[in-house]
Amino acid sequence: MTIVHGLQDTALRAALGIASPGGARGRLSIAIFHRVLPQPDPLFPDEVDRTRFDMLCRWLATWFKVLPLDQAVEAMDEGRLPPRALSITFDDGYADNHDLAMPILQSHGLSATFFVATGYLDGGRMWNDTVIETLRRCRADALDLSDLGLEGLARLDLSNLDARRSALNAVLGAAKYLAPPVRQAAVDEIARRAGVELPTDLMMRSDQVRALRDGGMQIGAHTLGHPILARVDDDTARAEIGGSKARLEALLNQPVPLFAYPNGRPGRDYGPRDVAIVRELGFRAAVSTSYGAARTGDGLGLQLPRFTPWDRGRAAFGLRMVRNLGETPASASG
Fold it and tell me: Which CATH class is domain 14-122+201-324?
């Protein structure tokens, strides 16, 4: 098996080197993660756990030249990216980023950039986690939401694991693009009806953010409350983006030049106005969730694409990374 893996690695490095040869023709792959769980989650079997993340870091370190994002962006702009360049990023600011992801990254000699939604530091909880933990912990076999006015939702079947997964997807989909106050009120009411006690330690504390920085990681801004920027007004968008930057700079006592758009789909989750705000606030680079890889001169410095394959097999994961280098990233027009 070791020989097979060695041959696979050699072939993948060669393919990646052709697709991303470095220099003026170099392309920057950026991997995106959110959480690293202690063990697999039955409700979210595709979520990365510590064993899988350790394996992924080993693969990425073998196939790519992994760079901190700010260094990679600078090298890309100057046409001196190394062959097979890649950066690693995390969104949202979960506590397991500090507790589990950082030690694994360090064990492989890797760095990552952690984009933090600062409004949830020190005991906060994102709206989607309120839904997830509510339906995970609800002891009833069903939950009636017919009077909440959430499109397509009535009685939730919670009688088995598959039903709970379906219920989660339905609620998250129905609430995702609601106005933030309406969305929060709806998910709080769902939690109240379920009668569950919800966790307050899912997100990082301020001292953990500082510990990430002190451990060789980079910190970027991700708004205050993780709104869909395309759904909020100009003043709210500016306050969300600028407020997150200002809080992190005060917390770390250093500039924060990197930003991630919440949800991150160009044209749907953010638009040209938001890119303009990011530029005006002095961010050096910003990342989306569009597929593909960036390169010198493509104008995507404030809309850098990101991608992580979902394949569990070594060869399939690597080949999808190769194919992603050929994708044309989307961007918000304007």
Answer: alpha beta
* CB-count burial class (<10 Å; 0-12, 13-18, 19+) for 184: middle
Q: Per the structure block, which two tokens stand in for 173?
A: 């989909």
How far from 97 is each of 49, 50, 90, 110, 325, CA to CA, in Å? 11, 10, 8, 14, 27
- Rounded Cα distance, 65 and 110, in Å: 10
Distances (CA, A) of 139 to 136, 186, 193: 9, 20, 11
Each residue's pLDDT tens digit, 243-273: 999 999 999 999 999 999 999 999 999 999 9
The pLDDT of residue 3 is 66
The whole-number pLDDT of residue 47 equals 93
Q: What residue spans define the domains of the chain? A: 14-122+201-324, 127-194
Phi/psi region, residue 304 (left: phi>0; alpha: psi -120 to 50; beta: rest), is: beta
**Tokens for 330?**
């989307």
Element containing residue 294 per DSSP (H, E)? strand 294-295
Sites in the chain below the pLDDT cut of 50 = none
